[in-house]
Amino acid sequence: MERLTVADSGQTTHVGRDGSRFADFDPLPAAPVAAFFSPPSVDVSFAALMQAALSWVSVRMRRRSWSKRLAFAALAILAALAVLEVGVRVLWTPPEGGYPPGMFATDDSVGFRLARSFSARHTTADYDVEVRTNSVGQRGPELRPHPGADRRIVVLGDSFAFGHGVDVEQALPAQLGKTLGGRGINLEVINTAAPGYGTHNQHALLVADGEGWAPDLVLLCLYVGNDFRDNDHRRFGRLVARSGILVTVPDGGAAWPVGLKAAAAVHWWSARLLLTGLPAAARSEEQVVQDYCAAMSWDAGFGTAMVHRTWDPDAAAAFKTTTAWLDRVREWCAAQECAFVLALLPGPQQYHPAFWNLVVEKCGLNPEEYDLAHPNDALVAWGREHGVEVVDLLPPFRQVTTSGPGIRLYLDVHFNAEGHQLAAATLAPRLAPHLAP
Asked: How many C-alpha atoms does 393 have within 13 Å on its Cβ side?
């Protein structure tokens, strides 16, 4: 029989291969030997060593696991941002006019409105102005009570009458109040204009709020450079407010993508800064000219289609649509027994010779094919036919611009402060007779 002998407190225990155990008396104490050579002592030390080794390996594995997790998380974030970038590029539409987010509010009856009690700065390379609205969403002071002794003008218009790029005190409505007030007229001028408004928006605004304003005179400021375009929903869609900015909804198109586009536009800079840390590269002057020439017939700033000597069917249709909306405004004013005056605001292509000559040169136009006063003359004729007083600002703007070198009345295409002042000085004497007691 083979046996394994284990010392245990002065006796020897024999263990057979079959697991049987038997003991006999050992006269010598086994403790000193066990202290140096005892297998259990060796087993404990080896176990401790193995535990330490396993602990070290476990830490290393955990560290490697965390590294892998961090790497995976970083890749997931980059992938998500890449998807966001692609989505933004697909969905993003530049906000109309570059106005501060939050400036516009949704209004399905009018199309959109200026947000109430809004305040922000509108900053570009050419100007830095404050845009502030009152508690009813108008750029100007709070409305005051309208006693019978006062006279009240309601100004309808788009970004021109709103005062794009100038301080509120420099804009046409405020300048009119100052000029007519100097004539001794106790007057309040309400600026209801908003960037992007077409004649259809202005009529809807009158229907919604006009009776409460109780105007003595409605002055509609029509910018001949793009108001015909803004009224042609069939070809150019309609502007609506989403996420506080203006975006275009195609005629008959689904409305849900507009919310995505607006959100993408608002968060565009955040997405770009996360991915690149840099803003988008500015377009060169050559690129700007090329883009304008490619779309100049119906450019959003000033479309040349309306200044052709002979209108094509699209231009003729846009004129017909616009005059139909003007006729509705005339009818509303007649029903309210208030005066109606139509002011025609020109673009610099019409009154600044150097500006137009540059367009002709860069875009390769034949100037003989154009009549820069065509839309103005057609609207003056429409006014005579429908009993509407029309004040055309093109002649005085041409006269001042050509009276001396270096005279400039515009910022981009909008009036600068001097342009607004000239417009008010021209309009005031034509409006005064309608405000007499």
From this structure: 29
